[in-house]
Amino acid sequence: MKRLLLILSLVVVSGLARGEAALDWTADEVRAVGSHGPWPPAPVRDPSNRISGSPAAAALGRHLFEEPRLSSRQVTCGDCHVAGRDWRDGRARGLGKVELDRRTPSLWNVGYQRWFGWDGAADSLWMQSLRPLLDVREMAGSAPAIARLLREDTALACGYERAFGERPGADDEKLLVDGAKALAAFQQTLVTPRTPFDDFRDALVAGDRAAALRYPVTAQRGLKLFVGRGNCATCHFGPLFTNGEFGDTGIPFFVRPGEVDSGRYGGIARLKASPYNRLGRYSDDVSGVTSTRTRHVEAQHRNFGEFRVPGLRQIGRTGPYMHDGSLATLEDVVKHYSTVSLDRLHSDGVPLVRPLGLTTEESADLLAFLRTLDADTPELPPPPPLCP
Amino acid sequence: MRPWLTLLAGVISTPAWADCPLDLGHGTGIVVFSDRYMLALRPDPLRIEVGQPFALLMNVCTKRGDPAELVLVDATMPEHKHGMNYAPTIEADGSGRYRVEGLLFHMPGNWEVAFDVRSGGAIQRLTHDFVLK
Question: How many CB pairs under 8 A join A and B?
């Protein structure tokens, strides 16, 4: 017993010598922190995409991701979702043929999302992948051109056959959708590595005080704010740090004088009108189990100006922030939530977003925690050849 | 959930309510009642998770044994005064048993589920609270 106490004392003393300490955590706090893991989750399998999870499909998708011939403008998916820049462009607003109204989101962990796009107008990653392919402001592709490419390019046709188990057929629209499904299969492989937060979370849940000591005390204080008074975890929930839904965070929704971005409200309308949603004939989920959300989602007035709650993994490296890129730095985001105007938010009940009134120290703590959600990511190896 | 199991046991042992088939499978369920109605319900899956769709299996009864109908199911967070982002649908099997599909609680906290039931003319609303952590 004396020896155990001595070892524990040495662990604590050596931690303190490095400026480290383990805060006291209540059972409720441990449960709340534990809910943000474990990480990584099981690989994504989307029943609406019959090639989801297939290495051959991911290889085809990787080639298509960097393929300028998908676009009449000779641009690629990777021009905006840049591999070496955390799969985003770093701009406040995306740039296609013209400047767009929303920010290009990072693709890290995108396969785990339930709704896609800032307004959730897509209910699958393959449906979302169709949008920039066909949008005249972005890649301005077309079903006949993309189908012809998949049929006539020897390497892509071979890659298609390996992924789908058949030669590219004559149906242009089916080939367009299959191309998007291959793109989705590739994007589903983009999963962030474990972070310092994950190590602390596991140590806290396991009661491993020595391992918990390695997590900076400022980040611990920030984490307590995050799951406690800050109320951040209500929306930034679970291992992905998002509840997968939508919220109004007090960012103005005017995109130009007299013109607003309706956000989720318009997204639901576009989702329901699209032939490519999970209720349509292109979904491969014959059970219909994964279409429950699409069947039951219903636009409500409060959806106006709501945007998807983003996950927070890699958050320190994927600015600028908010759906319109209007906040340049993570410091700006913390300041926004510290001082947000309740007048703008129009809540009848206790508002989910309310000014936190953080002190300088609290803001620094929250930032310290958020930055522990970042991980160094390995360089992506060159794409494997589609066919030898 | 445990207090409701206790309540369920109490309800089952009450002879006047014995005609309402409360066993919804898996030997568990929740009972909600008023002076006139009794509802038995069980989530499917049994454990409700934040952000995950679920259904409710329900029996709707009156204490006098009259036919009763489930008219509407909806859920709100009273603290924040907002509802779900999804509109549930009700499927009846014709014998007082229902399956309510398309419920989804998108945040942790207290969710109040409202059940509008009718036997004869007037609709009565019963409620039950689910607390998600």
Answer: 67
